[in-house]
Amino acid sequence: MYVPVVVLAGWHASSRSRKRERVDFGRDCDRHNAGARPMRRECGELVTTIPDEGEDNFKMPRASVVHMTSTATRPHHMSQVLATLALSMGTLSSGLAKGYTSPALDSILDNQPPHLYQSPNNDTWLAFSVTQQEASWVASLSMLGAWFGAMIGDWIMRRGRRLALRMTSLPLAGAWVLTGVAPCVELVYVTSFIGGLCCSVITMVAQVYISEISMPGIRGCLSAMLKVLGHVGVLLSYIAGTYLNWRQSALLVAVAPSMLFLGTLFIPETPSYLVLNGKDDEAANSLQWLRGEHVDIRHELQVIKTNILASRAKQYELSFKNSMFTPRLYKPIAITCGLMFFQRFSGANAFNYYAVLIFRQTLGGMNPHGATIAIGFVQLLASLLSGFLIDIVGRLPLLIASTVFMSLALAGFGSYAYYVSQTQNLGYVDSAVVGQHDWIPLLCVLVFTTALALGISPISWLLIGELFPLEYRGLGSSISTSFSYFCAFFGIKLFMDFQQSLGLHGAFWFYAAVAVCGLCFVVCCVPETKGKQLDEMNPDYAQAR
């Protein structure tokens, strides 16, 4: 998605010289803007627009680049940071939801008393138990909701970015409250689906909002803040699940979307959306709040208007039918969807949603909750490191290394699970002896998590923004994202079936085989995009391998 955002660079004129330059400033800028060409330094500071490469599904094509000038005071970043902090409650909510499932399923299957609510009839604790198949539905329905949310997210966003956040944050908070008081598993099914839908839309809208309000100089930091808060949410859920049962954890998770709703009461709508809907006065007020009270935003606002008009004109030239059947989409869709498939079916979802249950079957003396917390912490650190390595090492080397280490770690974990199952079948079960080897499965999982977070997980999303032609990037992003959630749903749901039919060791050997196939796919099909400009990412380049 491409949005018109401007950055003021090279602010060096003194207040006295600015007064002298204001006389001819407007006349010179109008003359240069007629050709939409970069302006000379005499016209002031160079202002440009750059595209956003976030992982979102907003379907507005990239606007034409317009260079404007300004003699205004340097914009303030504080308002943009505050708005990002408010929106980070949304990605925190998504992270909390993702990390909630693993300890919650262990709590539900263990049938722990909720310690919160009592039945009004007999004054006993209100509790219910679920089967393993029912637990798999509880875990996977959130991804089915996320798949549906990816399809309707653009429609909701067109009603307004801020309104979309409000429309989804309150239902998300309500869904978690209902989960905490649910008297039956069927209600948990419903709340899981609603929660996944809302989290999908919130994550999408948050990325679009940040790209539309931020200046290029800090856009990367603000986007990274959202991603980091998502991983922090996963870690916090793992920690909370160690001490709280599934009902208490659900009520705790409800706090984050409630804070998101309150935060949206104090942030403005994005200037781009307001201009797109003909609300120029409100757009000016919004941009003034974001840039600072004493900043002259007239020229930046004019850039936004110009780019919106260019985007709208280009959008009218495209039809959905022509977009769907164009050969230019075939290769990028095949590459991005292939990476999503191998990512989802190589064990990533199994560890994210069933980590506590898996460790309970393989660890002899170590606390499974403690091992799960270690996974969340390593995942957070690896995600922070990935942003630096992707541009330094390159996409393709990281993808190859990622799939290689994932394959080895999965095969090693499956082999250890086979060893544990064989010793149990033979009756040689000594928890003290088995506990001495707890470092083996934990090391395998940590290696797998690190390889996943450094390689295929972030790069598969990054390539969505790099391989698709500019005019089809919105459609291509929607297709790849929806396919990813669809694969995640089946990957989570089928884990219990794999475990019952193949055993825990067989399930992870299967994941290792999928990772090996993913390695072959990467070597044969995925191109290197490091150092390439976005306009170089055409279908011919995608087919170079």
TrEMBL record:
Keyword Cell inner membrane: no
Subcellular location: Cell membrane
UniProt cross-references to InterPro entries, sorted A to Z: MFS_dom, MFS_ERD6/Tret1-like, MFS_sugar_transport-like, MFS_trans_sf, MFS_Trehalose_Transporter, Sugar/inositol_transpt
Stretches of the chain forming a coiled coil according to its record: none
One MF annotation (Gene Ontology) recorded for this entry: sugar transmembrane transporter activity
This protein's GO CC annotations: plasma membrane
Record keywords, A-Z: Cell membrane, Glycoprotein, Membrane, Sugar transport, Transmembrane, Transmembrane helix, Transport
Membrane topology qualifier: Multi-pass membrane protein
Start and end residues of each Major facilitator superfamily (MFS) profile domain: 83-530
Tagged with keyword Protein transport: no
Transmembrane stretches, start-end: 137-156, 188-210, 222-244, 250-267, 371-390, 397-419, 439-463, 475-496, 508-527
Pfam families recorded: Sugar_tr
Protein name, UniProt field: TRE12 protein
Organism (species): Acromyrmex heyeri
Gene it is expressed from: Tret12_1
